[in-house]
């Protein structure tokens, strides 16, 4: 395994590798958004230090919607108000240069789209879109937040049922469309890049493993250890903002 800790060297080798690839696919995790002021989940000072992991269980939402939305309006919905950071812009730029075929993200903050990435597969959904649990009518965040402040539990103005966010909770199934698209790109990839993810949360983390088993070169860019370090051809233990700025300057 090629292990690099210098951001400039990592950026140089990364660009050389991705330019030689036929089909490069990226998977991003919470570490990509920390420089935007969004805490990761498990790290020191992370989201789980402020709220319980139970918050993201579908049973909690369905059994205690008022409790869920009280937490969500303070800690989860504001994620979409943040701005993209250099890592988001770097991924958008390499896509614009034709070097990245698809971007699969575990993040629910919508920042890749804000940064200009086009082919984004939001594997865990997002907190921008909401829908009725019965009639499936769509709602935006502004409407839902107003409902929460007035009524505690947002209910559909068409059928009166609970409105839920368009994120994938623990206990939910990954929607067929992003699951199919992610697997299609994973199977085609000759280069798979995991950024800012510990590769612990399945099934998203399994995509990296599937790509590696299918013969793709695996690059992992993360400050901490990941579950697939032993499979990586290249392991960049670099700060993502520094690494991303080096690439942005080189393109």
Q: Please give the largest β-sheet.
A: 7 strands, parallel
State Rg.
19 Å
**N-to-C SSE string, H for helix and E for strand:** EHEHHHEHEEEHEHEHEEH
What is the mean pLDDT? 94
Number of separate domains: 2
Helicity, in percent? 25-40%
Spans where pLDDT lies below 50 across 5 or more residues:
none
Give the distance, in angstroms, between the N- and C-terminal Cα atoms.
26 Å
Count of helical regions: 9
Strand content bin? 15-25%
Briefly note the CATH topology name of the largest domain: Rossmann fold
Strand runs, count:
10
Lateral strand order in the biggest sheet: 1-10-9-8-2-3-4
CATH architecture of the largest domain: 3-Layer(aba) Sandwich
SS content category: alpha/beta
CATH superfamily of the largest domain, by name, is TPP-binding domain
The CATH class designation of the largest domain is: Alpha Beta
Shape: elongated
How would you describe what is shown here?
This protein is α/β, with parallel strands linked by helices. The protein folds into two domains: about 1-40 and about 85-125 and about 175-250, TPP-binding domain (Rossmann fold, 3-Layer(aba) Sandwich), CATH 3.40.50.1220; about 40-80 and about 125-165, SIR2/SIRT2 'Small Domain'. Helix content is about 35%, strand content about 20%. The protein is built from nine helices and ten strands. A seven-stranded parallel β-sheet has the order 1-10-9-8-2-3-4, with helices on both faces. A three-stranded antiparallel β-sheet has the order 6-5-7. It starts with a strand and ends with a helix.
């Amino acid at each position: 395994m090629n292990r690099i800790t210098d951001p400039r060297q990592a950026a140089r080798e990364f660009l050389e590798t991705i330019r030689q690839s036929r089909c490069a696919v990226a998977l991003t995790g919470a570490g990509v958004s920390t420089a935007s002021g969004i805490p990761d989940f498990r790290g020191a000072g992370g989201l789980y230090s402020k709220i319980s992991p139970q918050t993201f269980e579908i049973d909690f939402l369905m059994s205690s919607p008022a409790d869920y939305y009280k937490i969500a309006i303070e800690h989860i919905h504001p994620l979409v108000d943040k701005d993209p950071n250099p890592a988001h812009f770097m991924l958008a730029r390499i896509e614009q240069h034709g070097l990245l075929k698809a971007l699969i993200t575990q993040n629910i903050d919508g920042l890749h789209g804000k940064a200009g990435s086009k082919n984004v597969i939001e594997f865990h959904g997002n907190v921008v879109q909401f829908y009725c649990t019965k009639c499936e009518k769509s709602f935006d965040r502004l409407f839902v937040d107003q409902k929460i402040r007035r009524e505690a539990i947002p209910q559909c103005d068409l059928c009166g049922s609970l409105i839920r966010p368009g994120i994938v909770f623990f206990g939910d199934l990954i929607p067929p469309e992003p699951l199919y698209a992610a697997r299609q790109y994973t199977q085609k990839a000759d280069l798979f890049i995991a950024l800012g993810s510990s590769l612990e949360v399945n099934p998203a983390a399994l995509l990296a493993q599937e790509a590696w088993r299918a013969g793709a070169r695996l690059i992992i860019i993360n400050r901490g250890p990941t579950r697939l370090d032993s499979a990586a051809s290249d392991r960049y233990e670099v700060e993502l903002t520094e690494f991303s700025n080096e690439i942005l300057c080189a393109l």
